[in-house]
Design goal:
About 30% of the residues lie in helices and about 25% in strands. With about 250 residues, it is an alpha+beta fold. The chain folds into 2 domains: about 70 residues, no CATH class; about 170 residues, Jelly Rolls, CATH 2.60.120. The strands form 2 sheets. Strands 1, 2, 3, 4, 5, 7, 10 and 12 form an 8-stranded antiparallel beta sheet that branches. Strands 6-11-8-9 form a 4-stranded antiparallel beta sheet, with no helix packed on it. The radius of gyration is 18 Å and the shape is globular. It starts with a helix and ends with a helix.
């Protein structure tokens, strides 16, 4: 723990109570609850205790997330048209997606939120998605500032190898923008397929993979959100904790 982490944790305990960060502290214990993890979750580096071990979630089940889900789905047609225009005229704004494990040229990304802030340069390219994200995710504070939101485009033939992401205290929302036949996703051994204009929600601390066996690109809008089962003090503590860990790791 660094002085910055200790100070922030002390302030949060003073505001929310001495036990408000108990789960975060338990997570930091050596080999915390490793034997209690789901077998397909054990490759995740940090697992916050008490988060239900559920790989797939109902995107309409959480009142905190529902306004974002509803607004994205309602604006799907407009979002898709703007994305197609950006792909056709400003392809240079898309970049190889850099996952913490790998960089892929056949996985292209246009970022709307990154580094804890909206990417203002993307507002003109995808104004509807940018607005919805700002109003329904950033301003309410449900987006995870440690991560991002981007249009994720898999080129024909692209695959994303099975992997676990770093932690379970955020959750991944997909709005299906443009889905060809032959595209799919598997989480914890269960395969599902995107439906254009609808959202999927899953815990990416579980092993997952995706593929595009179609003849055209597959695009989803991805939004990294706080897991609905985390609390306000936990979110603040985890933001400080992970930010400091990243600084120490360079």
């Amino acid at each position: 723990m660094t002085p910055e982490i200790d100070q922030q944790f002390a302030l949060l305990r003073a505001e929310y109570g001495r036990d408000s960060l108990a789960r975060v502290e338990e997570m930091l214990e050596p080999k915390s609850l490793i034997d209690q993890r789901h077998p397909l979750q054990r490759a995740a580096k940090w697992v916050l205790p008490g988060i239900p071990q559920i790989p797939w979630h109902d995107p309409y089940a959480y009142p905190e997330l529902l306004p974002l889900v509803r607004e994205l789905e309602a604006e799907h047609a407009r979002i898709k048209a703007e994305l197609e225009g950006a792909w056709a005229s400003r392809r240079d704004r898309f970049s190889d997606y850099e996952h913490y494990l790998v960089r892929q040229q056949n996985w292209q990304a246009l970022y709307l939120y990154r580094g804890g802030a909206l990417v203002e340069e993307s507002a003109a390219l995808a104004p509807t998605a940018y607005r919805v994200l700002r109003e329904s995710a950033v301003e309410p504070g449900i987006i995870c500032p440690l991560l991002e939101s981007h249009f994720s485009t898999l080129l024909p033939g692209a695959t994303i190898a099975p992997h676990c992401d770093l932690w379970n205290f955020s959750i991944n929302l997909h709005l299906a923008i443009d889905i060809p036949d032959g595209a799919g996703i598997r989480v914890a051994g269960e395969t599902r397929h995107w439906q254009e204009g609808r959202c999927l929600l899953f815990d990416y601390s579980f092993e997952h993979e995706a593929w595009n066996k179609g003849i055209r690109t597959r695009t989803c809008l991805l939004v990294d959100l706080w897991h609905p089962d985390t609390t306000a003090p936990e979110r603040a503590a985890l933001t400080t904790l992970m930010t400091e860990i990243r600084k120490m790791m360079g």
